[in-house]
Amino acid sequence: MTTVRRTKSWLLGGYGFELSDTRPISVGALSLLTDSFLRNALPILLDSQEKSALTNMKGRNAQDELLAGVSHPAHDELFRLGGLAPVPGNKDSIAFEPFEVSLLSPFSRFEGSGEIVHILEQHRAGPLPSWLPLRLLGYVAPLRPTFMRIGLERFRNVLAFASLGHTPQVTDSLLVDCVNGSISVRLVSERNKRRDSSPLEEAPAFRAVAEALRVAVGLDLRAELAAHPA
Predict the structure, then answer these.
(1) Does residue 213 contact residue 225 with C-beta atoms inside 8 Å?
(2) CA 127, CA 115: separation in Å to the nearest integer?
(3) pLDDT one-digit tens code per residue, 68-102
(4) Distance between CA atoms of 82 and 70, rounded to whole angstroms?
(5) Where along the chain do its domains lie?
(6) pTM of the entire structure?
(7) 192 near 155, Cβ under 8 Å?
(8) How far apart are CA 149 and CA 147, in angstroms?
(9) Is 64 helix (H, G, I), strand (E, B) or coil?
(10) Is pLDDT of 182 > 90?
(11) Which 3 state secondary structure label does DSSP give 145?
(12) Nearest-angstrom CA–CA distance, 190 and 172
């Protein structure tokens, strides 16, 4: 069931909302969602000049979680996938062992006027072959995914409290947790000048993840926001 809560900040100004949803997810839908994120959303996130950099975007805070069952990362986490990967067994048999892949986004630097840059670090554990590209992890048939997480946070230059001027602050976030056959989604947006503003319209990476959710599990974030007008 999807819930939408609308807000208005009288102190800092601006409109906001929080959308949340939890529902079952099949293994096939989990693979489809993973594949769509890695092939469609991730390339949009990466800076065209520096392929390992995120400009005015980062992963979720290390302690943020919607569903329990996955350990907390060392840094902000953009993506994590875990499950079972095939390894040679006895004689002609195939065994499976746990694997995990994560994309973390520690802070790198400030750039220009109001831009903040995080770098992207890939970490792997388990029997995945080094030659297997990240973009194929949702598509390779022998892999058995058991959990997956996506976390996007978007910076915008907003007027800070106490007349400190405009500073980059996280105003939008999209979290997706898939654990033990359930998927939980939370989309939050703050400090908007209009009631109907949404990062789904303004941020292509958010839009790509929203489309992946619509195709994989039938959750249409745009339609849900429209069904719960300001």
Answers:
(1) no
(2) 38
(3) 999 888 889 999 999 999 888 777 778 889 999 99
(4) 9
(5) 2-227
(6) 0.91
(7) no
(8) 7
(9) coil
(10) yes
(11) strand
(12) 6
